[in-house]
Amino acid sequence: MSLPSKPASIDGGISAAVVEQATAWLVKLWSGVATPEDHRECARWRAAHADHEHVWQQLQAIEQKLDVVPREVASRTLRSTSPGRRRALKTLAAMLAGSAATYTASQTNLWQRYAADYRTETGERQVLDLADSTRVTLNTASAIDVRYDNRQRLVQLRTGEILVATAADPATIRRPFAVGTSQGIVRALGTRFTVRQTDEQTSQVAVFEGAVEIQPQLDSSRLTQLEAGQQATFSAHTIQAPRLLDADTAAWAQGLLIVERMRLDEFLRELGRYRVGVLRCDPSVGHLLLSGVYTIADTDRVLASISQALPIRVAYQTRYWVTVTSS
Amino acid sequence: MAWSSPPPAALQQSLHALYSDHHGWLRVWLQRKLGCPFDAADLTHDTYARLIGSRRFPPPGESRGWLVQIAKGLLIDLRRRRRVETAYRRALAILTEQQQAPGAEEREIALETLVSITAILDRLSPKAREAFLLSRLDRLTYPQIAARLNVSVASVQKYMLTAVKACYSALQTPHVATE
User: Fold this and answer.
1) Is the CATH number of domain B124-179 1.10.340.30?
2) Residue among B93, B99, B129 whose CB faces A82 most closely
3) Which of A17, A53, A75, A235 has its Cα between 20 and 30 A from that of A258?
4) d(CA A306, CA B8)
5) What is the assigned CATH class of domain B7-102?
6) pLDDT band at B176, cuts 50/70/90?
């Protein structure tokens, strides 16, 4: 096809077979398990014909291209531009179904709260202004550790839920702000957002301003960006597709629980977070729907008011053992 | 169909006709797709520039089809570019505290590169795309990638072959190859 001493021009057409062979060699050497013999053989192949070496050199441009951009920047950019990022929704659904309603704080949660830097009791709410003017509001039965150093600003959410309003870093070198949960990292970019440790397996993030990036702990390649107006749930392995933000998600910061056509069992699970003791929902009334604005400071009053609105009865075995049944 | 070397006068004339007959509806069509009159004006201009650059002119009666074909390609390019731009800016915002923020020129080069790589990756299946990134960016071995993607090592090899071939053919096309 061409003179042996000189590579054929691209237009003149290097044979497809040579391209095929060069590609195969490259893929072999990139495997990470190529032997020294593989490398020697490849070198022999390249030396065998000028065309071989020519195509080989052209293929090196792939690596050179990738080297133009710092690896981590390239990784983030290229992974978040993937058009077909499908999420393991089924896995997540199964996971959520598996985490049965626990109406009381588990022992682990209790321990987490006592060992933490800042914590709130059940029914309590606390606003913290951190050293960089970032404001963190802790919801009921929540605990965080604050880890600020010269590399990063990290708030580790041990249990519960927080509302974060980040401030520009006063340090001369900008440090990233992030919230860690048991399932991964939520990185913020000038933002107001909430993070909730929903249960042992999942965390939930809702973004009101700016944007955040979620990185599940066990799959660092699965990055997802959430924009203002979106919320998403994630586990250590996977991130659920972002959904439209429920604007009332952060109403607790104002001491309110705002719901729109929420199932009674779900509502009581929410209310239970603000209440010491057990709050049980009889399955026969769990499907009833509820809308309204409730003050979480007085959960007994909330229970009294919903018992007026729905065909239910609130039975107090003790103050700390309440069951909601059909009336 | 293709003019190998059209005489300048004739070129001027046919270009003029092509422009006056078609640029109006083309701009309207692009504006409907883009929702922005300025982007639409730019892409209309780029469509003609691309056509002239190709040195191939549509035969009579096929002008519309040709222009739409070119404009569609440019639309895809523009959307990809925007997508990469946003992602790149995010990545920088998150990561620059670790190193010096790149200068304007460096950023432009990086962005150009990322756009061209994305154009290649967009032609791959999600698994081939991820296999390629895990190999080239994360430096995982094929057995590690296989475990990560839950496929056989032979499949990883197949993905990598597809990816490298896509890269090679992109390197051969004029606007990606080195000038």
Assistant:
1) no
2) B129
3) A235
4) 84
5) mainly alpha
6) very low
Is residue B2 less than 8 Å (CB to CB) from chain A?
A: no
Beta bridge pairs of residue A154 = A147, A178
d(CA A235, CA A240): 8
**Closest by CA position to A239, among listed A251, A228, A225:** A225
**Rounded Cα gap, residues B156 and B136, in angstroms:** 13
Contact A225 B143 (CB under 8 A): no
Closest Cα to residue A304, out of A101, A124, A295? A295
Percent of chain A with pLDDT strictly greater than 70:
84
pLDDT at A130 over 90: no
Locate A233 and state its tokens. Answer: 């749930």
Q: Does A10 touch chain B (CB under 8 A)?
A: yes
User: Residue B1: which residues within 8 A CB-CB, separation 6 or more?
Assistant: B56, B59
Burial group, residue B165, by CB count within 10 angstroms (0-12, 13-18, 19+): middle
CA distance B118 to chain A (A): 7
| Interface list for A 266-325 with B (CB within 8 A) | none
Give the ranges where chain A is alpha helix by DSSP (H).
16-29, 36-48, 50-67, 71-80, 89-98, 107-115, 264-272, 299-309
Which of A4-13, A276-285, B103-112, B131-140 comes out lowest in average pLDDT?
A4-13
Q: Per the structure block, which two tokens stand in for A270?
A: 């929410």
B54 CB-near residues (< 8 Å, 6+ apart): none
Instruction: Kindly provide the ipTM of the predicted complex, given to two decimals.
Output: 0.76
Residues 145-174 of B with CB under 8 A from A: 148, 157, 160-161, 164-165, 167-168, 171-172
Does the CB of B83 have a partner CB in chain A at under 8 Å?
Answer: yes
Q: Does A75 touch chain B (CB under 8 A)?
A: yes
Q: In this structure, are residues A33 and B143 in contact, taking their beta carbons and an 8 Å threshold?
A: yes
The domain limits of chain B are 7-102, 124-179
Whether pLDDT at B3 is above 60: no
pLDDT tens-digit map of A60-107: 888 888 888 888 888 888 887 654 433 332 333 333 333 333 223 333
**pTM for the complete prediction?**
0.47
